[in-house]
Design a protein that fits this description.
370 residues; alpha+beta; Nuclear Transport Factor 2, Chain: A; four-stranded antiparallel sheet; three-stranded antiparallel sheet; flat
């Protein structure tokens, strides 16, 4: 995997920039989003500077393109990030309220037992606790304001998603496997996640009850069931087409040659393992000599000195294999922890990777950003 770019945080509303440790905008109370430093400049329009933020808009036509499916996939990613953000805010809010209650009880105790104390010491203790209470109230108010803004934004997103889904034709049993069906299912999944998220903010559901993972599992299970049902239908239909039919000659199984898709997946698993464990030997073993000669080894070591990988996931698309070379689009989703400040950020990187066979082993020859 290519060396990570420098990441900064950007407000999706006012476009104000923040450091890696910031979570939300001081002016807009909006959740900040990670963007690559090299991807932005003062001459760029706001639409060109976006990273993970994708605005919900109605489809221009009935046809569903790969670009639209990719866009809604990023929208689903943003919904997952919003879920974690809201749960973190609610957890912090609960802790702050507990601390506030404890401080108020402590203040009452000082006031009740302060009649016989030295007046100066008594006032000092009172002032210190009141200052702590004031700081807690400011933090609570700030988080409540952020949640209010998120509630309004998510409500708007829900309305726009419902309008988009209403403009589409609902796919049938077999149409669900087409691009249009996939697009419809992904939008519906995002809508359910948004509604559950809004219910949590409105306290209609308890914190931690969000489960987009379970929703995705149900969708996958339903898809598998439909595939099995379709296969059985084809099988019994062929059995009914006449028992006297003579079966055609069985074609020999295609002989496996060249690079297989599972070889690419195995390589990416090693890259993932090497980054999580910071195993430079394993990391080097999966890159070609030409790639390593460009100084990439020093770059990854420097990267590991600055961040730790809390989690690392990837999705492989558009795999093209040949006899001794291959290519694929790999989207990495990384949860990074800064070693200096301890802050945790989620970053997504979409790369076009080229693979070659070198000394009988599959290795990465080049990586380019998509």
């Amino acid at each position: 995997m290519e060396q990570l770019p420098d990441i900064r945080m950007l407000c999706p509303k006012c476009r104000r920039e923040f450091g890696m440790d910031a979570v939300y905008c001081d002016d807009c109370s909006a959740m900040l989003e990670p963007v690559e430093t090299e991807a932005s400049s003062t001459s760029e329009a706001p639409e060109e500077k976006r990273s993970l933020h994708i605005r919900v808009t109605a489809p221009e036509d009935a046809a569903t393109s790969e670009e639209k499916i990719e866009d809604v996939a990023i929208e689903n990613l943003k919904a997952d990030i919003e879920e974690k953000f809201v749960n973190t805010l609610l957890l912090e809010l609960d802790q702050l309220r507990k601390r506030l209650n404890a401080k108020e009880n402590h203040l009452s105790g000082i006031q009740e037992s302060g009649s016989g104390s030295d007046q100066r010491e008594y006032l000092t203790r009172i002032g210190a606790v009141e200052s702590e209470i004031d700081d807690l109230l400011k933090k609570i108010t700030r988080i409540e304001t952020i949640l209010d803004n998120l509630r309004d934004q998510i409500g708007t997103d829900i309305s726009q998603l419902e309008a988009r889904i209403a403009s589409l034709d609902k796919p049938g049993v077999f149409g669900i496997f087409s691009d249009a069906g996939k697009y419809y299912r992904m939008l519906s999944s995002e809508l359910r996640t948004k509604k559950a998220l809004l219910d949590v903010i409105l306290k209609k559901q308890p914190r931690g009850s969000l489960s987009p993972g379970r929703l995705k599992s149900l969708i996958i299970s339903a898809a598998v069931f439909l595939i099995v049902a379709a296969s059985l239908a084809v099988y019994f239909s062929s059995r009914r087409q006449g028992s006297g039919a003579v079966p055609g000659p069985r074609m020999p199984a295609e002989q496996k040659t060249g690079i297989a898709e599972q070889d690419i997946v195995a390589l990416l698993e090693d890259i993932k393992k090497a980054n999580l464990s910071k195993d430079i030997s394993l990391w080097e073993s999966r890159y070609s000599k030409g790639y390593l000669a460009a100084g990439k080894r020093e770059g990854i070591i420097d990267q590991w000195s600055r961040i730790d990988y809390r989690s690392l996931y990837y999705v492989v698309e558009d795999i093209r294999t040949g006899a001794d070379s291959a290519s694929a689009v790999v989207t990495w989703r990384m949860e990074l922890a800064s070693r200096s400040g301890g802050s945790i950020k989620t970053v997504e990187q979409r790369l076009l990777a080229d693979f070659v066979l070198e000394n009988g082993a599959l290795k990465i020859a080049s990586v380019r950003k998509q």
